[in-house]
Amino acid sequence: METFTKGYSIKDRQFWTIVIGLGGASVFVFAAMYSVQPLLPFFTEQFQISVSYASLSMSMTTLSVIIGLIVLGFLSDRHGRVLFIWLSIILTIIPFLFMPFTDSFYVIIVLRFIQGFAIAGVPAAALAYISEEINQQSMGLATALYISCNALGGTIGRLMMGYITERFSWEIAFFSLALFGCIVFIIVWLTLPKSQNFTMNNRTIQKDLHGFWLHLKNPNLLILFGLGIILQLSFTGMWSFIPYYLSEPPFLLSLKTISFIFLAYSLGIVGSPIANSLAGKVGINTIRTFGVLLLVSGILLTLSTSLFTIVVGLCIACLGFFTAHALTSATVSRTAIHQKGSASSLYLVSYYIGVASGSTLLSPIWLHFKWQGIVVITVFLPIIYILFLNYTLRKRVQN
To answer: pTM of the entire structure?
Structure first.
């Protein structure tokens, strides 16, 4: 009993059942979230719609995730973590069962918006659950493994949808993800321990909102939130429009082949743990800057006409992005001087603002300047922002 009051450690069986449970939940909801990304060119042709309209299947989901993070974060503080993780998985499955029966892309967007709100239940509760149930010494590893499962989920979702759609149909692809979600729910239900250290939050909504406002007045946190937006805008922009780029001359790749390109995303699985390890030895800011440089270097390599070089570039970009993202997320928690959970929620909100921006706001850039324009934007913004961030940090140290 004494062992538990300090939280589970890496030596405890419950530590690993928590990792398996949260990891499984994370894999499914992030597979669901990013599942349509390789299908954007397919939707454009299948439903005879514009690139911007097709991209709404990503950005509207992301917008709903942002709303869900705030609302469900408040509710999970008051009613527990595990319940919202269970409900998140179940309610994410249901829209997949209805999408195949419509021939209206508008209905798909509405269902994706509903699905986004459900998806938010896992990220809204997971990190808080880890902080409550895992001891301080093992928390970094548990968080890194959880973030790695985010990347694994994104890889599985993109790969499944692209491959099954090309081999069978998009309808069967959605049903397959629903079946996958049912299997994951059973695993999570069997493995994820009930909360033992959860304490109901008795603060009023007004006090929570006041906490958010104080975070938004903190210039150190604002800079980190901005970095979250920029990182994800560039990363999502790269992945949203690479299918269009590779489906056109000189590549003319099929949807199934393009879906395998998304395996590069799996490098994010190792990016977070590596970043966590190196930051303790070299320093968070140095490794985060290195991650941003890897991200932009990888994006630049996609300008090549060699498919092999493009794949290498995508791998490098993924490794760099998840390195920078993991360390920025960790820095937010350390920088917040109160209500650290709400600070992390605001970082996630900024992160998903970047997702929505990268999938829809960059559509005009694609239409007018094609891939070269996307590369210019997604390389220029992170470089300028990380220079600004480092300059600001140095100036504060000197003062």
So the answer is: 0.83
